[in-house]
Amino acid sequence: MDRRVVITGLGLISPLGNNLEESWKSLIQGRSGIRKVSSPISENLPYSVAGEIKDFAPERFIPKRKSIKLMNKGGQLVVAAANMAISDSGVNPRELGLALGIGGTQYTIEDAVAAIYASLSEDMTFDHQRFGREGLKSLNPIWPFTILPNMALCHISILYHIQGPNFIFSSIASAGVQAIGEVVKKVREEEFPVFLVGGCDTINPICLTSFFLKDLLSPSSDNPEKICRPFDLKRNGLVLGEGAAFLIVEDLSHAQKRGAKIYTEILGYSSCVYGMGEMPSKESFVRETNGAEISMRGALKDAGISPDEIDYINADGRSCEISDWAETEAIKKVFGDYAYKLPVSSNKSMMGHLLCASGPAELIFSILSISQDIIPPTINYHHPDPRCDLDYVPNEARERKVDIVMSNTFGPEGDYTSLIIKRFS
Amino acid sequence: MKKRVVVTGFGAITPLGLDVKSTWEGLIEGRSGINHITLFDASTFPIRIAGEVKGFHLNGFGFDPYLFDFMSRATKFCLAATQMAIEDSKLNLRDIDPTKFGVSLGANEEHIHLDQIDEVYGENRTYQALISGSNYYFDSSKPLGRIWPIRRTASISSYLLSLIFNARGPINTSSTACASSGHAIGLAKRSIEFGEADVMIAGGCESIISEFSIAGFGLLGALSRKNDEPEKASRPFDKHRDGFVLSEGAGILILEELSHAQERGARILGELTGYGSSSNAYRITDSTPDGSGADISILAALKDAHRSPEEIDHINAHGTATLSNDRSETRAIKKVFGKMAHEIPISSNKSMLGHLIASSSAVELIISILTIQHNIIPPTVNLTHPDPECDLDYVPNIFRKKDVKTVLSNSFAFGGQNVSLIVERFIEDKDN
Question: Which end of chain A, N or C, is more open, meaning fewer C-beta atoms within 10 Å of its C-beta?
Fold first, then answer.
């Protein structure tokens, strides 16, 4: 008999708010967190609309100034969201294992500006030899520590003196959910009873321009709050966001022994890969439909429930034409006629795509949907697309009894994950 | 009941050679793969040595050259090593269930070389733009500028392998610095143990010998500056050590569920029995002075393998040749093994290979398996003036013949993330 796996703590910082309460409030009020990027360099970027974290004060979560200096923005968000999840759950942090889904190396060319400036010859051209001799002295000596992707996890371990098992999934959009899935297995199989697990990603100019060049982004607009329109006929691409989301995932008996508050139970998880999806092509629709179908069926099978037991789907809904079509098609294949009675909504319509943090953040919102019996809306939904004909909970939140939720996270790189959670009883 | 995980093939590209055989021969001869940097003009840099892979190109491995543009140097190493590993395993890819065939790699993001900046970020705009701190977007009129955003990511190697070899099972990329491929191999092991996969491509690839990496690690004081004697620069456990040498390469293992391997009559190279991980919870910049943290991952791996410390015949050390690591690792070994610590031969492949960062664990695990097969322990070279604080048996300078059945391989990452793996000689019936 497998162990039961429950969620006992939540922590979130998102473009919708710097804590879970604020984020949830914005979400159910249908408020968007997408704005023009405030960073001073954004004017010169080809693309500058995103869900940015604002007014974040790391000092509240990180006691030492020196530690803050060692962290990039991602590291700071991770430590803050982890702090929230740990205090929410009341778990002794020393008991925890750590798992994280996080984007790649967070370097920006800004880091090298001073060094390159110091390497210019008299005619203002770059002098390679001068870089080796003088330029590199202008690099921040702790620079490597601020950009390595594993540092965020190390900072948590240092702050809370956590020495348990740990691992990181990197760089793809479903990495956060993959980390959760791996944790679920480790808890079920009694490898380790309790984990702090989550995801984080931050936006920077390199990240924005990368996605811009992949032709995945919705064009910049003067009306940033309106551009992310999943399942709407006038959708035209994803909008990036940043944030960090953490959960405490725990073996049921371990949680009960310490008298923990239990949010929900994790019933099922599945993931699959269905080819690289980065370059849209004719076959993309078929491939993405297959990937989504396999992933959802796998999660249902793992949970041991039938499709009609699902009350709500927290969709991937990333607002790209082919992926919206494919997710809709796959839902119809898996759920049959019941698909038309099943509310499906996209949190990304309000907060954008948080990349590695998107899955964990949307799982947290799914948990609140169960505890509060409210389904958040898909905003900016005004022009129904004939190929997307399900109930997307348009524009306004809906009160409804929700016991079991499926949360989908599909990455543009061809990775598909689905999680199923259930009201704890 | 956990399934058993065996190794049925491997491939490597290292500074000592373009395959496993030449790498192994180099190690036994005590040859160093460290030399002067040629990948960029390092003549004015404070650090001018590295472990570069020499004479490598991907032609002849049978891949579509169209894909080459999408590949960093590390990804190319990875494909070559994977091709060799699959050939070595004699797997017929048409016979395996693609949904039970996965990829788990340790990898890093591609680091840009200064001379690529023009191509990636656009000529003329580049340096002026950088100075003003603005306008540094990719130049999509140039091939490299278009491709860079895709190929620079750490996950690209895993995804290309999954695409090329039609592996649709579990896939992941671990970026945990120097422990990356150790984590990746551990996660792959678990995927097979619990039935998610029958076969996993597991390992890592790395190529970050660039101006910024040399500058960055150099600023931390982590790199050796023995520029005049490259082959003597990496001196783990020696009093005159002054840091590690940055290297590049790839190591790939084919991990397979035991009955799957037996049914197809595969040659079994070794059994992967233990995986443990831990954090130091100490400092981002240093290892723990008393070895705590590292001991936890070693103990976790022993527990996973159902082995007691006295059953370990040899330790393939992390052994980077930084003062902090060498002493911390020595103390961690003493903590776990007690008095026996002095009797276990320990060696550092990094004394010859340098530090392959994200691929180091994978390459060192391959070496550990060869150690078991040949009953020969590679030496720790350049160990001529032992550090009094490091007083164990590090197999100095000359290889040693010994019956080796079980090897512990350690990898400890910057920031304090540790991984330990245990590999054993395959014995069909373990209970007898």
Answer: N
**What is the arithmetic mean of pLDDT over B82-97?**
96
Give the rounded percent of residues in chain A with a pLDDT score beyond 70: 93
Sequence ranges of the domains in chain A: 5-106+149-423, 110-143
Nearest residue to A352 via CA among A15, A3, A9, A6: A15
- The yes-or-no answer on residue B355 being catalytic is yes
**CB proximity under 8 Å: A 93-112 to B:** 98, 102, 104-105, 107, 109-110, 112
**Residue boundaries of the structural domains of chain B:** 5-112+152-424
Q: Which of B43, B103, B135, B279 is the best substitution to test chain A (most A C-beta atoms within 10 A)?
A: B279
The complex's ipTM works out to 0.92
| pLDDT for the residue numbered B131 | 44
Q: What is the pLDDT of residue B120?
A: 64
A54-63, A355-364, B148-157, B365-374: segment of lowest average pLDDT: B148-157
* Contact between residue B423 and residue B304 where contact means Cβ atoms under 8 Å apart: no
Q: Collect all residues with Cβ–Cβ distance below 8 Å to B203 and sequence separation of at least 6.
A: B10, B78, B81, B82, B85, B105, B106, B181, B184, B185, B250, B251, B252, B253, B359, B362
The CATH number of domain A5-106+149-423 is 3.40.47.10 = yes
- At B138 the three-state DSSP class reads coil
Burial (Cβ within 10 Å: 0-12, 13-18, ≥19) of residue A420: buried
Residue in A139, A147, A273 to test binding to B, most B beta-carbons within 10 Å: A273
User: Residue B317 in contact with residue B236, Cβ under 8 Å?
Assistant: yes
Question: Known catalytic residue: B178?
Answer: yes
A150–B176: do the CB atoms touch at under 8 Å? yes
pLDDT at A346 over 80: yes
Q: Which residues of B touch A189 (CB under 8 A)?
A: 194
For residue B314, what are the β-bridge partners?
B407
Query: Does B281 contact A160 at a Cβ distance shorter than 8 Å?
Result: yes
Residue type, A21: E
Q: In this structure, are residues B75 and B156 in contact, taking their beta carbons and an 8 Å threshold?
A: yes
A149, B48, B321, B331 from B226: Cα distances, Å = 29, 9, 12, 27
Closest Cβ–Cβ partner in A169, A211, A213 for B173: A169
Count the neighbouring beta carbons within 10 Å of the beta carbon of residue A38.
Answer: 10
Q: Mutation target for A interface from B134, B183, B302: give the one with most A CBs within 10 A.
A: B134
- The answer to whether B154 contacts A116, with C-beta atoms less than 8 Å apart, is no
- Whether the per-residue pLDDT at A358 is higher than 90: the answer is yes
Q: Which residues of A touch B189 (CB under 8 A)?
A: none
Binary contact (A145, B415; C-beta < 8 A)? yes
Architecture category of domain B5-112+152-424 in CATH: 3-Layer(aba) Sandwich (3.40)
Please indicate whether, in this complex, the C-beta atoms of A124 and B127 are within 8 angstroms of each other: yes
- Please state, for a pLDDT cut of 70, what percent of chain B lies above it: 92
Confidence (pTM):
0.94
Terminal alpha carbon distance of chain B:
19
Closest listed residue to residue A150, CA positions, set A207, A184, A106, A112: A106
Residue of A nearest to B275 (CA): A165
What is the predicted pLDDT for the residue at B378? 98
Catalytic residue (choose from B78, B178, B205, B390): B178
Q: What is the mean pLDDT of chain B?
A: 92
What is the Cα–Cα distance from B234 to B385, expressed in whole angstroms?
Answer: 13
**HEC string of B144-196?**
HHHHHHHHCCCCHHHHHHHHHCCCCCCEEEECCHHHHHHHHHHHHHHHHHCCC
3-state secondary structure of B326: helix
Q: Do B280 and A150 touch (CB under 8 A)?
A: no
Sign of the C-alpha dihedral computed for residues B114, B115, B118 and B121 taken in this order: negative
